[in-house]
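Possible regression after last week's pipeline update?

I re-ran a chain I had predicted before the update to compare outputs. Posting the input and the new output here so someone can diff against the archived version. Not blocking, just want to make sure nothing changed silently.
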Amino acid sequence: MAEFTHLDDRNQPTMVDVGDKAATERRAQARTIVRLPPEVLEKLVDGDIQSAKGPVFQTAIIAGTMAVKKTSELIPFCHPLPIDNCKITIAADAQQRIVIDCTVRVHHKTGVEMEALTGASVAALAIYDMCKGLSHDIVIESTQLIEKSGGKGDFKRQNR
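New output (post-update):
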């Protein structure tokens, strides 16, 4: 049975010791779904929403990327990582939802799942912030790990 990794032998919270682990290629992709009401979606032009604050999706990509780099400052037991690559894409899907994908890659001793989840989440929050003047009926529906590779094992979500 799996155990919590961030507890020591006295069940006290602790950072995982990665000192003896080998550095390997690690990759993670996370996705956040945002549902926008029609009055906001109708502002979608050429793949982005133009607001008084600027292009919404482009700004959200920058916010998400900044968040990836600051994950260890936000999540107490995350190790600071030298991010090799971060790619965030944002697009409306056939169900008129906004799909944010954040993929992070690093060559290190620990994975980047939290960085990918944080990047996708903060990008969604930036979209909410920039669109709330049009409507507060914006719903950040879900954030989930889509896949990860490297480390102890790989993971790939079957029902995307």
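Follow-up from reviewer: compared with the archived run. The mean pLDDT is 91. Marking as no regression found.
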